[in-house]
């Protein structure tokens, strides 16, 4: 069975839910998919605070659709984790209790409407660079979920860039807001690719299993190369004095993110960690009556619409 598993991966074919897989593969896959799902769900919060304060009905409709897409991404991913035997209610509890992590980027605040644009441009942009290779993940349900998610992320990035272009063509105050947002989000975006390769001990095993296709540093470089010309086109200065084209390497050189800050934010000491967790916990508690009502309804009708509702809200605690 182990040989068949290895051969399947080596031949570039997918592992499917009913296939035998090593425990370590299953655990790693559940952890990765759960962290990804949690990131999508927590990621609704920074921009979500701006829905009621959008500057026009058009911007409100766009932002509402974008934040709703992120909820959908979370749902596909929790479903993918379930195909590995994970329990959605259990994953939600682990997120709420702080036993499972989500991307460090969502622990930074969104301070102005320019942040909505910069999050779309840089955060969704970094997410795309991270996720496009995952469309070839060795685990079938994850890879297939990723294809649709990447298409939607690409829309997200464009709406962010379009918003920034509009602001950069606006008043000097609006241009200053965009520059300020880019200054705050540039380094945290680079941190989205994870620690430097030298500090990423699981990379080799994950590459062997086809869970990971490129190292953190390779993806970070790809993101920088893609983003620098976009910043120039916008007229935004990226806050890195070491950023310059290197003819010899055929890539941009860039400075080192503050990895101490990265570790602090990951371990719970970021500017918004407590707020994000409290909000998620409150949303879960506020939804308890929906889960109870759905269960009662299911028991009465014996025709379980509850399962469909839980697919959107997470399973009840009991
Ligand atoms: Fe997403
Ligand atoms: Fe997105």
Report on this model:
This protein is globular. The protein has a two-stranded antiparallel ribbon with strand order 1-2. Strand 1 and strand 2 form a beta hairpin. It is 66% helix and 2% strand. Helix 6 packs antiparallel against helix 7, helix 6 packs parallel to helix 8 (172-191) and helix 13 packs antiparallel against helix 14 (306-313). The chain has helices at 2-10, 23-42, 44-48, 57-82, 88-96, 113-131, 140-168, 172-191, 203-208, 216-234, 259-269, 273-286, 288-301, 306-313; strands at residues 244-246, 251-253. It is mainly alpha-helical. It binds fe (ii) ion (2 copies). One fe (ii) ion is lined by residues 40, 70, 73, 149, 153.
Low-confidence stretches: none
Shape: globular
Distance between the termini: 36 Å
Percentage of residues in helical conformation: 55-70%
Average pLDDT confidence is: 93
What's the total count of β strands? 2
User: What small-molecule ligands were found?
Assistant: fe (ii) ion
Along the chain, the helix and strand elements come as HHHHHHHHHHEEHHHH
How would you sum up the major sheet?
A: 2 strands, antiparallel
Supply the key terms.
318 residues; mainly alpha; two-stranded antiparallel sheet; 14 helices; 66% helix; binds fe (ii) ion
